[in-house]
Amino acid sequence: MYLRKYHGTTYIGIVGPTNESGESRDSINNIARRAGDGIPHPIRATKGYEARQEHLNIFEHKTTHESILLLDHDNKFPPDTLERLRSHQLSFVSGFYLRRRYNPLAPVWFHDNPANEWPYEPYLADPEKGKLAKLGASGWGCMFMHREVLEGVKPILKGEDYVIEDDMDIWPYDLNKVMAALKTADIDTLRQEIRPLRGTHDVVGSDLRFPFFAKQAGFQLWGDPDVRVGHILEYSLHPDDFSLQDDTEEHAQKNRARVLEGRQTWAKRMRALA
Are 121 and 261 in contact (CB under 8 A)? Predict the structure, then answer.
């Protein structure tokens, strides 16, 4: 694990609906900040990915902050959230929280996926405290990211936004090159630009899409199990609730079987498209 020396300030972007949770708001306002860090900046949007993209646009083009902390406004955060996440001196780190579901309880994390297989495998184990977890993806609700991650992902996306809901059926392509190649019947260029990625049209969430492309740019996503965030439903859905669940391994076995079946189907489809 290469430790970078980050000493710059952080932009704090809050994503939430029009109805506000006082519990979440108070926890966000109580997050410890250093001199020069931005004050929490809320953006309301119908779709969460629209607000996240707007935050990234502001961070990238209108600030000089070195890093960004994206927080969802239906979470309750510990006061040391920002300090812990950036203390690791890593480019891309997520806190630990649970999905908006009760039965079964499950984290928002996904296992590391070095072979780039689809689908991703949800992270259903209780992570070891005090040890960073290597992740394939995570929800956006408590995400720390250095500016260099955007700089690395941008050329791969070829003009697409960082945060969108997309089917990822093919790799991002240069539309101008594609149109020019069609005019001249340049098959080689078309083969370079139009490449199957997933080969299917069901939608992939931005919380999977962005970490996938970040990994292609050389940026590993890490998870800190000690930044334990409460996800607010009727009460704060907390990682400690997940730790006390009795049937976690049973759910994990069933899920692994579904993931294996899905990956076999994906591999067959990719062979057919080759």
Answer: no
